[in-house]
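All the exercises in this workshop are built on plain-text protein records. An example says more than a description, so a record of this kind follows:
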Amino acid sequence: MSNYPNSGKGLKNMFIASIGAIVCTVLLVIPIVNIIAAVATLVFTILSLVGLWTVGKDIPECKMAFWFTILSSVLSGIANTANNSSVTGTSVIGTLLSVAGSVLSLAVTYYVCTSVAAALRTFGAEEAAASGDKAWKIMLWTTIASVVASILCLIPILNIIGALLAVVAVIAGIVGLVFYMIFLNKAYKAFGA
């Protein structure tokens, strides 16, 4: 653990930010409160990024994940702009950029889970490491389903199958997020934060 003096603190920040983001997402549907929730979501996003950067001081792959997170956010913003300016609300360019953002988000999850799990294994925290392995694999299948759904939604008639697959992907994504949060919780505690 002495080789990783910053990891516990950074992972704890990421865990707290994940919980805060979920609470804010629920609060976004309540009028008036949604303004505060939107600001709080931004604060939790920054907290997560600070946590990822902090872990990156000890584990280089997490620093790479930090930059992938920034790039993913930029691509998602451009994709949303492209889709919002489309007459139909969905554009091919917007969908492709959204897919690229999803792939980058998967890369972030992969790098965080696998590199932190490898660090945890160096001092025998196998249970925490195994939960990271499980979390990123669930997110892999969720991302695949989401990408396929996005592409199918662009094709007439197949868009119905795409919409159903998108619902399944969202549910699987929630399960994956829960496993990711469990991993962050176990990992920061294993690092002694």
User: Anything to note?
Assistant: The mean pLDDT is 89. The two ends are 11 Å apart (CA to CA). The longest helix spans residues 158-190.
